[in-house]
């Protein structure tokens, strides 16, 4: 699933290519992906793209319609969705069916992009709204972790608000916006912290370390993703991971010095997390939660 760094890069990619262009056509390939019906997608046609931005993991294309009223095309790519840009977009009409194509946006110079989703579990969500905060999931987003508002004091308040596993805190979109499964693994590895440490047990020093890791890991990932075409972002994300998705590989060490251990995994029903016992859990492997209780 694209997370804050990739979505930020996609927003920049769309700003560079789409701002100032006129929308000439919008085709819906998967009606189930469209979560709103007023305004209709056709409300974008004839409008000028003014901006592309991000709210957490949501992308937002702002279009000034011919009447002057702003309309936002906002979407969440979920686990298997993606933005596929073309400088010369196919001219064939979009027809609903079993194709991965969910939505096509054509611009006046023949360029444009497709929103696609692979697999059978369709979770891509597309909204056409007058205000992005009309989307409940956007309205409920927590603080942006790279914003000035995300101070050490603010993070301490979030940690103290309730006792929960620290990985769950990082992934909670109504607490901190934009961090998902992959970057929470990377942040906790950098912070030498077990993913299942309860926030109520974190010392002030540990909170300092996790806070710094959030800022450092995300800032580095944003910098590495910046300027890359949409087609390269997935591979770039995978290459940048130290532990996530690297089960069985040598751990590179939280500070870049190999620790001699290998990356371990804890599996769940539809996901998994990766960590290093030496770097994060005092050398003690965590039990697979499908089979037994967690070893702390």
From TrEMBL:
Annotated region described as Disordered, given as residue ranges: 233-256
Keyword annotations from UniProtKB, A to Z: DNA damage, DNA repair, DNA-binding, Glycosidase, Hydrolase, Lyase, Metal-binding, Multifunctional enzyme, Zinc, Zinc-finger
InterPro entries given in the database record: FPG_cat, FPG_N, H2TH_FPG, Ribosomal_uS13-like_H2TH, Znf_DNA_glyclase/AP_lyase
Catalytic activity field: Hydrolysis of DNA containing ring-opened 7-methylguanine residues, releasing 2,6-diamino-4-hydroxy-5-(N-methyl)formamidopyrimidine
UniProt-listed Pfam families: Fapy_DNA_glyco (PF01149), H2TH (PF06831)
CDD domains reported in the protein's UniProt record: BaFpgNei_N_1
Any GO MF annotation of the entry: 8-oxo-7,8-dihydroguanine DNA N-glycosylase activity
Record GO biological process: base-excision repair
Domain of life: Bacteria
Family (UniProt): Belongs to the FPG family.
Residues covered by the Formamidopyrimidine-DNA glycosylase catalytic domain: 2-124
Domain FPG-type: 242-281
Entry protein name: Formamidopyrimidine-DNA glycosylase
Comp. bias (Basic residues): 236-245
The species this protein was found in: Cellulomonas gelida
């Amino acid at each position: 699933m694209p997370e804050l760094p990739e979505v930020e890069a996609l927003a920049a990619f769309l700003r560079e290519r789409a701002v100032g262009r006129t929308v000439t056509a919008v085709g819906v390939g998967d009606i189930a992906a469209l979560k709103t019906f007023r305004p209709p997608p056709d409300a974008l046609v004839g409008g000028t793209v003014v901006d592309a931005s991000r709210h957490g993991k949501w992308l937002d294309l702002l279009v000034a319609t011919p009447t002057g009223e702003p309309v936002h095309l906002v979407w969440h790519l979920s686990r298997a969705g993606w933005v596929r840009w073309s400088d010369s977009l196919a001219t064939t009409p979009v027809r609903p069916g079993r194709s991965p194509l969910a939505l096509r946006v054509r611009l006046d110079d023949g360029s444009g992009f497709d929103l696609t989703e692979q697999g059978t579990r369709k979770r891509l969500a597309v909204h056409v709204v007058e205000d992005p905060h009309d989307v409940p999931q956007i309205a409920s987003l927590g603080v942006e972790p790279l914003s000035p508002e995300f101070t050490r004091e603010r993070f301490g308040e979030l940690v103290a608000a309730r006792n929960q596993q620290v990985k769950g805190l990082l992934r909670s979109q109504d607490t901190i916006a934009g961090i998902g499964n992959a970057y929470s693994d990377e942040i906790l590895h950098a912070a030498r912290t077990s993913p299942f440490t309860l926030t109520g047990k974190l010392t002030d020093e540990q909170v300092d370390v996790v806070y710094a890791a959030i800022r450092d890991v995300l800032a580095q990932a944003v910098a590495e993703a910046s300027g890359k075409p949409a087609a390269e972002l997935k591979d770039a994300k995978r290459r940048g991971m130290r532990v996530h998705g690297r089960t069985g590989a040598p751990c590179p060490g939280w500070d870049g010095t190999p620790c001699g251990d290998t990356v371990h995994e804890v599996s769940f029903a539809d996901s998994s997390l990766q960590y290093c016992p030496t770097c994060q859990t005092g050398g003690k492997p965590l039990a697979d939660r499908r089979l037994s209780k967690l070893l702390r």
